[in-house]
Structures are given as C-alpha cells and as structure tokens.
Amino acid sequence: MTYFYSAYGLCLCADLPLPGLALLDSVPCVDVKVWLDGKPAWLDQLIDGVPEVFQTSPSRNERNEPVLTVWKLAGGDYFQLQYADGTEFVVDRFGKRIWAFWSSPLTLEDTATYLAGPVLGFVLRLRGVICLHASAVAVGAQAIALLGTAGAGKSTTAAAFSLQGYPVFSDDVSALEERADAFHVLSGCPRVGLWPDAASALFGSTNDLPLLTPNWGKRYLTLDENGHRFQRQPLPLTAIYVLSGRERDRTSPVIESETAASGLMTLVSNTYVNLLLDREMRAHEFQSLSRVLDRVPLRRVTSGDDPARLPELCQAILADFQALDAAAPL
Question: Are residues 237 and 315 in the same domain?
C-alpha cells in the first residue's frame, strides 16, 4: 500500500504510514519517495563499500559517540545518515529519494520523528530551500518565526500561541519559499513536540499529551484537534523573534531590534541542519539570508524563566508585531 503526505511544500510518497505528517486526500505530483519496509540489495552493497565521511555532529552521547555521522556514498550520489541509536537513512543527492532502516527496540515512530525533522530538513537544503531553526505561527494573514537554539523555548512558545487560538505552521523547522513579494513560511507537520516540564507547565499534566515515541520521554500536541489549529497555507514571513535568553529575576519580556551587523550571523547560526551544508550550499544560504534580512525585521526577546508567564510572553510578542505592522510602509 502507498501513503501520501504533505510537509514543507513537498508531497511525500511512503510505503508505510508515517506518524506525525499531514495525510493527503488527493495526490498531486510526488516530490519525494520514502521507503521504510526493507533495504534493497543494491543499497546494502553501496553502504558496505568505502564511504567518505562528510560530517560528524559535535554533540555526543553518553558513550562519547557523535549523535549523527554522515557519509558520502558512490562519490556523493547518496548520503548516509546514521544516528547513535542505530537509526539510518540514505538520501540521494537531489533530495528525491529516502530509505530508512532501524531495528528493535527502535520503532517506526522513532524513525518518523527523525524523518519529519532533521532528515526532511536536509532534503530541503539539498533542494535549495532555506530552513530556519524556528517554530512559526500565523497571525492573521502573516507569519512570525520563533527562532533559537535548542532549549530556547521555540516549541513551548508555539504551543502557548496555539492555546491562545493562533494557528501553528511548524515546530522547530521553518521552511521559507522566496516569492516576488516576500519569503513565505511553508506548512510543516501538524505536531508540536514538548518535553515533560513544558507539557506540565502548559497543560497541567504530561498525561494529557501522548508520547512522541515509545522510547523517548517527549510528548506532542496534535494540531487541528481540541481547538488547536494547523496552518496549512503558506503566508508571508513578516517578523522573526529570536528567543535569546531567560533571566530568573525578569518579570516582563524585553523585545529589542537586532542590529544589522549581528543579524546576519544570528540567522546563519540558526539555520536548520547547517552542519550538513557544503561550500556551495553555504554560499546560497548566505545570499538568501541576506535577502531575508532586507525584508524581515529581526527582534531579540529576553524573558523570565517562569512558565506561568508564557501567555504574557505571547502577548508581548503580539504587541510588538502589531507595532511593527502599523509602522511598516504602505
């Protein structure tokens, strides 16, 4: 059986159900084919060849192993991504075909989580799409991005916006499509992942949200259910908020303009899977991000660390966004 999904402007065709992706009712042109049910013999032989190490992640697990290692296969025609837990992916150089492998106790849910995040992020980069390490929220007919490093509170803040009725495009990955008038945020996956402390702060109990996978402690909020909304249509990106830090004694959020000098470096350091870019991809990224900064204001947010004040943070961002919108030239 074949399953069709939409994610980040791409139509995916898979041979097994993919948890966490938006299922398509009708089938347009397929952009990416995904195989999860076994490894073809020719690919097995390719992997057993002599690979070229492309990148290793600086992050290490408890055994001091890289969390992710990437090899080039067949002279760069394919990339092999291997996670320290044993999950593997092979992606062709054009970002059109993906093969995934795992073994017990890993599950399809574990693999689908990697696929929906860093693997599709890498596929988008191979296809020339800029991806910010950001969650994105729709405010009226416009989009704002919540940018930041791991642990900055992107997902938690996006979930807090969802609780206030704002549709969410994506969690952790914001793919941008450049059009004549603006950069548009593309719809991602209809889930927001939350660690237990964030889930408890927002919903009162971790038990109110299902586990993302049987092997992780992370939970997820399903968009398009129980009053939460998933933003399916692209919208122009009109502001980027950099979640830069939390101060214990701060009671009210502070939002300031990012300087032009530091703004580009902020964006460059907060693009998604930037570890996996080659020289040509980095040059393309630099040019694209320069155009983003020419069109979209970058705002730096410093807030307190009290999760009970998340609604106040959302309101501060909304007030700042409305002020920017009012001051924008017609």
Answer: yes
Say whether both 158 and 305 belong to one domain: yes
CB 268 within 8 A of CB 285: yes
pLDDT tens-digit series, residues 161-195 = 999 999 999 999 999 999 988 999 999 999 999 99
Collapse the DSSP code of 51 into the 3-class scheme (helix H, G, I; strand E, B; otherwise coil) and give the result. coil
pLDDT tens-place string over residues 270-279: 998 887 788 8
Last residue of a domain, one of 107, 127, 147: 127
Q: In the chain, how many domains are there?
A: 2
CATH number assigned to the domain comprising residue 205:
3.40.50.300
Rounded to an integer, what distance in angstroms lies between the CA atom of residue 212 and that of residue 193? 7
Do 158 and 282 belong to one domain?
Answer: yes
H helix count then E strand count, the chain: 8, 20
Residue 196 neighbours by CB under 8 Å, 6+ apart: 206, 217, 218, 219
243 has which bridge partners? 301
**Closest-CA residue to 273 (of 99, 77, 89, 108):** 89
